[in-house]
Amino acid sequence: MPELPEVEALAQHLRDHALYRPVARVDVASMSVLKTFDPPVSGLAGRVVTGASRFGKFLSVDFEDRKDEPGLHLVTHLSRAGWLRWHDQAAATPPKPSGRGPLALRVHLDAVGGPGFDLTEAGTQKRLAVYLVHDPQEVPGVAKLGPDALDIDRAGFGALLAGRTERIKNLITDQKVLAGIGNAYSDEILHTARLSPYAVSGRLDEDRVDVLYEAMRGVLSDAVDRSVGQRAASLKGEKRSGLRVHARTGLPCPVCGDTVREVSFADRSFQYCPTCQTGGKPLADRRLSRLVR
């Protein structure tokens, strides 16, 4: 799933390549991806791209005001398998709106068949969501976001954790509490902070909160620095190359050499290093525990 660094890099890629270009046409290949109907996506025709913004893990492409209508924002949540792909040329023939292939929505800029971008989604579980709104705050998920993980200061972060009973892994990935962090970067942040994913948020002392805050800032800032400027097609590989524990089950921890372990749930998993994070004690893998029974 694209998280804060990748979405920020995609926004910057659009700022570098799409700015001040008019929309020639919008093709919808999967009607289910659209979560709004008014204004219609056809209303983007002729509008000029004025910017690209990030709200947590949401990406917004911003379009100009008109005399009789305020600006428009094409807001998307890429979910687990969605992606934005830039193209210099594209087929001029509109795709059939079957929703079966990876293409969900295509935006032609300058001219039909010219440059632009596609929103795609791999796999059979279609969760990519696209909204066309006058204000990004009209998108329910954006309106409910907590403070951005790279905007919150140390005092605000400490206040956010104080008194909470959630496990720290769950808390920092809850978008209503803190926006932008998903499964992968939470694993990396907790490994850098040498914290168990099961640590209780409100029980961390001030020193631990300091370490966690600095780890969060460092991991995310480094990832943004590595990602911004990359071509959209290379961002996924860049993300994988920078990970130390996430998706590295069975490999040695690059810090201590211990074996990276995994805890699995129904539809997801997380990775950690026992030596660095849990005092050498492996955490129970719930999926394996159920199989043993």
Outline the low-pLDDT stretches: 289-293
Give the distance, in angstroms, between the N- and C-terminal Cα atoms.
Answer: 32 Å
Main-sheet strand order equals 1-6-7-5
What is the CATH class name of the largest domain? Alpha Beta
For the residues shown, what is the average pLDDT?
Answer: 92
How would you describe this structure to a colleague?
By secondary structure, the protein is of the alpha+beta class. The protein has two domains: 4-143, MutM-like, N-terminal (N-terminal domain of MutM-like DNA repair proteins, Alpha-Beta Barrel), CATH 3.20.190.10; 154-292, Orthogonal Bundle (Helicase, Ruva Protein, domain 3). Helices cover 28% and strands 19% of the residues. It contains nine helices and ten strands. It has helices at 4-17, 140-143, 154-161, 168-172, 183-193, 206-227, 235-241, 274-277, 286-292, and strands at residues 23-28, 49-55, 58-63, 72-77, 82-87, 103-109, 116-121, 129-133, 261-264, 269-272. The strands form three sheets. The protein has a four-stranded antiparallel sheet with strand order 1-6-7-5, with no helix packed on it. It has a four-stranded antiparallel sheet with strand order 2-3-4-8, covered by helices on one side. Residues 244-278 form the FPG-type domain. Belongs to the FPG family. It comes from Pseudonocardia halophobica. This is Formamidopyrimidine-DNA glycosylase. Its cofactor is Zn(2+).
Structure, briefly:
The protein is α+β, with helices and mostly antiparallel strands and 293 residues long. It folds into two domains: 140 residues, N-terminal domain of MutM-like DNA repair proteins; 139 residues, Orthogonal Bundle (Helicase, Ruva Protein, domain 3), CATH 1.10.8.50.
